[in-house]
Fold:
Amino acid sequence: MKDLLSIILVAFGYFMHLIMPQTATEQTFRLEIKFENIQKTDKPIYVALYQSEKDFNNKEAYKKYTVMPSQKTSLDIQDLPEGTYAVLCFQDLNGNHRLDFNNYIPDEPWGLSNNITRMGPPTWEDAKFELKQDLQLEIELF
Structure:
């Protein structure tokens, strides 16, 4: 009787596995960011990756990275979910871990996904891009 019950439970579990919808695994992609116009190879580049306009405006990065140009001039991010993102980066020439300004103008090299430069602070609309496949961005530091 015990063996019959075990067989029934195993068969029931197998049957339920066949008829229940499978949960789709979230598709992820690779984002490679290449930095152009690096001024000093011994100074770090700080990179912030944003997932929404709200977070971009509040400077609350989804992920943060540091790249040492003496070792590499690109950043390879694996396993990012499909979605809309923006990248903002700067090279910290004076080592204070922040982007410095001189009369509201960045005093250190900085860059934005889509390489948009305009008067005033960058906007989500300027920087956003869709990640639907593996992608390579080139960001020029201005």
Notes: The CA atoms of residues 48 and 104 lie 20 Å apart. Residues 2-19 form the longest helix (18 residues).
